[in-house]
Amino acid sequence: MTTGTITARTVVFHELGDPDVLTIENRELRAPGPREVRIRVEALGLNRAEALFRAGTYYYLPTLPDSRLGYESSGVIEEIGKDVTEFTVGQNVSTGPNIEMSAAGVYAERVVLPVESVVPRPEGLDAVTGAATWLTYSTAYGGMVETGGLHPGDHVLITAASSGVGIAALQTAARIGAIPIAVTRTGEKRQHLLDNGAAHVLASSETDVVAETRRITGGAGAQLIFDAVGGPGLAELSTAATHNGTIVVYGWLDQRPMAMPMNWPLRILGYANMELSATAAGRRRLDHWIASGIRDGVLRPHVGAVFEGLDSIREAHRLMESSTHTGKIVVKL
């Protein structure tokens, strides 16, 4: 049992806004209660959701003032509470599932979390790579396979393909034998996307995505569209789907209202990662999918940029909002 007061430098914000609203404050850390662990954080993995949350445009609003931030981190367990049997002191872990960011955001030197918010870090991953793994691959697998029903031989059109989830989606689709078609804004990242599993790369500023998808699929269209953008462009994008195809929307980079496509029959599903990870069985499937993919080398987490120290969090958020990076942004503590 740890004695004495423990404090941790913690990122908080007291008002909505751009990255400048983020501040770093010392916070006292309580001891882990029953079914809780305390983690010394080694690295943070940034997600677009956190920029939306900070700005007040996420699907739930922060509790202000004094909101915390962040889903994904990797670190080492320092202390366990009563009745914790899943983890041991000194174990390498990651965080991500079942976190309400206002109260339990992980942008901090140390955090106390329930065991349902902690997963084992796959063997062989260092802290930086570990922070770039769980949310991206769980979203890709959960959205495309569990929700979208992707099968070997299916064509899947993946928007925002150079993002962290986009790269994970390309690798995930390739691993199960599907045919991933990557959509990116320009052709600059073409080779990188091909290297990460894309069978085809479409630059939306240079080509007609729907027409090219139809050509690639012999006129049939893609069985699945895995979309991070939404907005009014969803209606046109949907015409790249096959008869009785499926669209899984997992993000809303375009904040404008979505238009309802009319090329029925068509399934349109919204994917929330927390639904699958809310159950022990769901977390087990996700953990085994990720760990086995890391072991066989097909799932290769891509870190696009590493920032040093918690004080760099504003700069890291600015890069994330610029969308000029490829893969995951990580802040190393």
TrEMBL record:
Residues 17-331 form the Enoyl reductase (ER) domain. CDD domains: MDR2 (cd08268). GO terms for molecular function: NADPH binding; oxidoreductase activity, acting on NAD(P)H. It comes from the Bacteria. It holds the Pfam family ADH_N. Transmembrane segments: none annotated. PANTHER family: QUINONE OXIDOREDUCTASE PIG3-RELATED, ZINC-CONTAINING ALCOHOL DEHYDROGENASE. This is NADPH:quinone reductase-like Zn-dependent oxidoreductase. It comes from Nocardia transvalensis.
